[in-house]
Amino acid sequence: MTTPALIAPAVSSYPPSFAGDPVTFGWALFSLITITSLSTAIILEVIRRWWGSGVTINEPLGIVMAGLVSLLATIWLGAIGDVAFLLAWGEVAPDTMARILDFDRMCDASTSPAFGVFCFLLIRGQYLVHFQLTSPTALQGDLWPTWPMVRRQMLSIAVLLFIAVGVTLSK
């Protein structure tokens, strides 16, 4: 556990790795918030669809869905601690920052098991998925997203950009 004494008081509104540059800080914050938000939204949507579909893990679609969830969980775990760190920098007490840094380390360490699950599912299901993708009846219908689907995601990204700019300018 990091002791508060090891965390230097904030000289700048931005962490030292950004060298006081608000543009790089804002871009990093926007990127990480976008990654965590979209990962969360997609994970919840996949689980919602999977829950009602009756698809099992032993079917190609179940393997793809579980693999997607585990890969996105890996990405989410890698980014969420950094989001907390960037949002809290210079805003919280040293004890709280020490806890946030511990949380970030735990999340980073948790990416390995989540990615291991993804690799296991990829190896386990590669033949089933390949068979499904090459069968004549696979993937019938239009695979491209509709404009309302794209517009909703773009609106989410615009809101996140607005939040990142606001947090950056307020520091």
What does it look like?
Keywords: Membrane, Transmembrane, Transmembrane helix. By secondary structure, the protein is mainly alpha-helical. The protein has a domain at 51-132. The protein contains four helices and no strands. It has helices at residues 22-53, 60-88, 94-134, 147-170. α1 runs antiparallel to α4. The chain is elongated. 19% of the residues are buried.
What labels describe this entry?
171 residues; mainly alpha; membrane; transmembrane; transmembrane helix
Brief write-up:
The chain has helices at 22-53, 60-88, 94-134, 147-170. It has 171 residues and is mainly α. It has a domain at 51-132.
Q: Count the beta strands.
A: 0
What is the alpha-carbon Rg in Å? 20 Å
**Strand count, sense and closure of the main sheet?**
none
Strand residue content: under 5%
Oligomer: single chain
Number of helices: 4
Secondary-structure element order, as H and E? HHHH
Average pLDDT for all residues: 83
How far is the first residue's CA from the last residue's CA? 27 Å
Range of helix content: over 70%
Indicate the low-confidence ranges by residue numbers: none
Shape: elongated
